[in-house]
Design a protein that fits this description.
alpha/beta, about 40% helix, single chain
């Protein structure tokens, strides 16, 4: 939160107009059929499982916790069709926001290479200090490019190595849903061709670093990532939204999503779109999954459009890195500072929305499983929730609750977060049940 206040001060001091760098290209026609989309990307695995991961926001804390979960999934072997397989290889989709998007994007691009160098490239790097030094460089105070370009340059060169979404199209990799928030209309926007088509744009040439920056661009501290909303594309670009119209008729929230996405069709009114931290509209990465499924017309309609057969199990694993530290203001009758007030308001909103999102998924997942079940196969739903509250050691829980939401942690914090990710999923009764049902064995964590 200190970064937020510093960013606000810098904004007030600079008084200089800045402009977003437009880096999305116009694109129409047959070429879009082969770009990075729900239909063309996604690990088909054996087809027996539908396994979805959701990585929350929470800065480096979220990135490290998600990385620990990936490690444990790598070391967990299950038996499918009589053959041993790492359960990591069965992951179909990873939906992420903010800090969690660094881990999901890196894994989407490089697969198992994440286990070789991600810690050095990102987790054990003081990214925050590097950004702060550049942020307060006087030469940047009057730059027309804005502070966000500084972060993009760093992520481009040092983390994602100038990769684009064309590089994300690994034949054996999962679909990575990097999610951001549309500042103008408050809707979630996922970096896939389906959403880029609303902008008459081709996602394949778009830099992954820009998408991750958009997913983690905290308002005020960072400028929005801007994209142009091109005109002149296929008038049927909104066709995929029509399936959700009927489902949204009695659902005000889903109707708002539909209307927000359809607004991209007004090219005169919305010439440019401004994207900020995905955690603002969905800090768990779960609502993006829900909305894509519902807008597509439901689980059955989505499976049909993707030419997928019903799985035996529909599994969603939520990796929630949110913390719940005791507010220091409650130790005094003094009026809270501006920093404490902003922090208290934002924390309260996030926790309330997280609770509502988890309840929504608990109610919806069984319905989706029922929709895709057939007389020959009943699809079994599993919603596995991982968060710090499942840690039964008070001292360790307090340690995690005191880790700030930033992008610069020490080695002890990183070590314990990675191990927490491994331990949380390894000891989850729901995950153990899935592994047992699949005749599997879990890793040792060594």
């Amino acid at each position: 939160m200190k970064l937020l206040i510093l960013g606000l001060a810098l904004l007030l001091l600079s008084g200089c107009a800045t402009y977003g760098v437009i880096d999305n290209k116009a694109g129409t026609g047959p070429a879009l059929k082969h770009s990075y989309s729900l239909k063309t990307i996604g690990n088909k695995g054996t087809g027996d499982l539908a396994l979805i991961l959701a990585f929350s926001g929470g800065g480096m804390r979220a990135a490290a916790l998600a990385y620990g979960v990936l490690l444990e999934l790598r070391d967990t072997v299950v038996v499918i069709n009589g053959q041993p397989r790492r359960i990591l290889d069965e992951v179909d989709t990873i939906s992420s926001v903010s800090g969690g998007s660094f881990t999901s994007a890196y894994f989407g691009l490089l697969g198992d290479r994440i286990f070789d160098d991600f810690e050095d490239v990102f987790l054990r790097r003081d990214v925050q200090s590097e950004l702060m030094h550049a942020l307060f460089n006087p030469l940047r105070w009057f730059s027309s490019k804005g502070r966000t370009e500084m972060a993009i340059d760093l992520y481009q060169k040092e983390v994602f190595r100038n990769k684009t979404f064309a590089d994300m199209k690994r034949p054996d990799g999962p679909l990575i849903l990097i999610n951001t928030s549309d500042l103008g209309y408050g809707v979630r926007f996922s970096f896939t061709q389906e959403f880029f088509s609303l902008l008459c744009s081709n996602i394949d040439s778009y830099p992954v670093a820009r998408a991750v920056t958009a997913s983690s661009a905290v308002p005020v501290l960072f400028n929005p990532v801007v994209m142009e909303n091109y005109a002149g594309c296929d008038p049927n670009m909104l066709a995929w939204l029509k399936n959700g119209r009927e489902r949204a008729s009695n659902n005000p929230e889903l109707l708002q999503v539909e209307e927000g996405l359809e607004a991209y069709g007004d090219k005169d009114k919305r010439k440019y779109v401004h994207f900020v931290d995905g955690g603002i509209t969905d800090n768990l990465g779960l609502r993006a999954i829900y909305e894509i499924m519902e807008v597509a017309g439901g689980a059955k309609a989505l499976l049909k459009s993707l030419d997928r057969k019903p799985p035996s199990k529909l599994i969603i694993i939520s990796v929630n890195a949110s913390t719940d530290p005791a507010p220091a203001m409650d130790q005094s009758y003094a009026h809270p500072s501006l920093q404490e007030t902003i922090g208290g308001v934002s924390s309260a909103q996030i926790h309330r929305y997280n609770a509502a999102t988890l309840e929504l998924m608990e109610d919806t997942l069984p319905r989706w499983a029922k929709e895709v079940s057939t007389p020959e196969r009943t699809v079994k739903p599993h919603f596995i929730q991982l968060n710090f509250k499942h840690i039964d050691k008070p001292d360790l829980l307090q340690f995690f609750n005191l880790i700030p939401t930033n992008f610069g942690l020490n080695d002890e914090q990183v070590d314990k977060l990675i191990e927490a990710g491994r331990q949380l999923i390894r000891h989850s009764p729901d995950f153990q049940r899935v592994v047992a049902e699949l005749g599997g064995t879990q890793g040792t964590g060594q």
